[in-house]
Amino acid sequence: MTLSMKQSKARNKGLPGVSVALPALATAVAMTLAASAGWAADAPTKPATASAKPAVVAASPDPFAALMQSEIQLGKSEEDNGNLRAAAYHYDMVSDLSTGAAKSDYSKKASALRAQAKITAEQAFKEGMAAYDKGQIGPAFRSLLRALANDPTNQVALRKIKDELIGTSVIPYTVQAGDTLDSIAQKNKFEDPSLAWVIGTYNDLGEKASLKPGQVLKVPVMIGVLPKAAAAVAKGGAPQQDADDAEYEATSNTLAQAQDLLNSNKFEDASKLAAKVLAEDPVNKDAKEVANASNYGLGKRNLDEKKYDAALIAFSHVDPNYKDTRQQITAVRGAVVSSADDHYAAGVRYYTNDDLDNAIKEFETTLVLNPNHPTAARDLAQAKETRDKLRKLK
Question: Looking at residue 327, what is its pLDDT?
Answer without folding.
Answer: 93
